[in-house]
Amino acid sequence: MNKVILMGRLTRDPEVRYTTNTNTLVASFSLAVNRRFAKQGEERQADFINVVAWNKTGEFCSKWFKKGQQVGVIGRLQTRNWEDENKVKHYVTEVIAEEAYFADTKRENGGAGVDSFENTFGNSVSEASEFSVQADDELPF
């Protein structure tokens, strides 16, 4: 089974492009996901995870997600590789988003009447929120 569930803050606004052959929308963004624990005396670290959302999910992300916003993403892990014009091989691992949710409180996201990640997954998000970057914390981007 290949399933990834992430909650983090967007490091930039989603970048939108369209495929050349089929004109399909693709939104790309990166999430800063806090690690659950930190070594004593050290700051908690974050992993920066690349996410790709296609079609309707990509359209939703490009329309509603903004830099610094906390979001939840459910999808699958995918790796790909290619060779550039200098014959150098490149490898990338990214999450292909199948579902995307707001994870900020309704007060923070303007009271939008959409399902949030917390409504979908219940208390597990509340318990994990103590490990997340808060809106007034200084973000590393």
Structure description:
15% of the residues lie in helices and 41% in strands. With 141 residues, it is mainly beta. The chain has one domain: Nucleic acid-binding proteins (OB fold (Dihydrolipoamide Acetyltransferase, E2P), Beta Barrel), CATH 2.40.50.140. A hairpin with a 5-residue loop joins strand 5 and strand 6. The chain starts with a strand and ends in a 13-residue tail after the last helix.
The assigned structural class equals mainly beta
Number of strands: 6
CATH topology: OB fold (Dihydrolipoamide Acetyltransferase, E2P)
- Which bin fits the share of residues in helices? 10-25%
In short:
With 141 residues, this protein is mainly beta.
Can you tag this structure with a few keywords?
single chain; 141 residues; mainly beta; OB fold (Dihydrolipoamide Acetyltransferase, E2P); 5-stranded mixed beta barrel; globular
SSE topology:
Layout: E1 4-10, E2 15-18, E3 25-34, E4 46-54, H1 55-64, E5 70-83, E6 89-102, H2 117-121, H3 123-128
Parallel strand pairs: 4-6
Antiparallel strand pairs: 1-3, 1-5, 2-3, 3-4, 5-6
